[in-house]
Specification:
With 270 residues, the chain is mainly α. The protein has 13 helices and no strands.
Length: 270
């Protein structure tokens, strides 16, 4: 037993050493940027206090949050259907949902643009009633929605699949409708996966560049601001904007991860 445990420990240590390369790679990139930025604090503070940078970060975070709220409303029912049903063509539907995961971001951008531009299949009729996506906040939303949907749907579907079907069946034998069983049994036991899927989708949404820039170069999101700053003011200014965004994202997502440790832990016992 002791010999087996010793081998297991050596296995874990080996895995940890191999896996640490990913952490070191990211850490090295962060430190390389941080050292340069922290060597000129006044310049960094000036960039961080720039009204354009603050407004852009707020716009980016707000667009990402709006995207997640939409996904909660339309993605959660889809994830439940995929988790609880088996129908002809289900694999095709799942493949369609996952298409944005495999596409180059520029391809995703073109797909969104030709669908929602003023002469697009969806954009044209909505333009007639005054709803515009080109160079508008709504354009940012649809681009973020397109690229982040698979992250949310896949994570939530996995959560629903982990909830034993017999728990729903028990609720239904006690008189609950399917919707009541879903809201009172499945949803509470899947909160952690829904929360995790929301974080993944939000992170993917706020990091998008190509899909957004095709439909809405303006108003700036943080990725387009960094690109614009790089082409107009050079590497130093754009690096400072990027570093400010890294600090904001690290603070937000570290906080969300801490919250997630205490959300829905009971579903692990299922």
């Amino acid at each position: 037993m002791g010999r087996r445990r010793h081998l297991a420990d050596r296995c874990l240590i080996s895995f940890a050493l191999i896996g640490s390369l990913i952490v070191l790679f990211t850490l090295l990139a962060l430190l390389n940027m941080a050292v340069g930025e922290l060597s000129d604090i006044p310049h960094l503070l000036r960039v961080a206090a720039d009204e354009k940078v603050i407004d852009t970060i707020v716009t980016t975070m707000g667009a990402g949050l709006t995207t997640v709220l939409i996904l909660l409303f339309i993605g959660t029912p889809l994830a439940y259907v995929l988790a609880r049903t088996d129908f002809r063509g289900k694999g095709l539907v799942e493949a369609i949902i996952d298409i944005p995961l495999m596409l180059p971001h520029t391809v995703a951008g073109i797909m969104v643009y030709i669908l929602f531009m003023r002469r697009g299949l969806i954009g044209a009729p909505l333009y007639e009633v005054g709803i515009v996506f080109e160079e508008a906040f709504l354009g940012i939303i649809v681009a973020m929605l397109f690229v982040s949907a698979p992250y949310f749907v896949d994570a939530v579907r996995e959560g629903f699949e982990k909830v034993p079907v017999h728990l729903e069946n028990v609720a239904r034998t006690l008189g609950a409708t399917r919707f009541q069983a879903f809201t009172k049994v499945v949803l509470p036991l899947s909160v952690r996966h829904i929360f995790n899927g929301s974080i993944l989708a939000w992170g993917r949404a706020i990091g998008e560049f190509a899909a957004v820039v095709f439909i809405a170069y303006y108003p700036f999101v943080i990725s387009t601001l960094i690109y614009n700053t790089f082409t107009t003011d050079g590497i130093k200014e754009s690096t400072s904007v990027a570093f400010v965004m890294i600090v904001v994202c690290f603070a937000v997502f570290a906080g969300l991860r801490i919250i997630m440790k205490h959300v829905g832990r009971y579903d692990d016992r299922v």
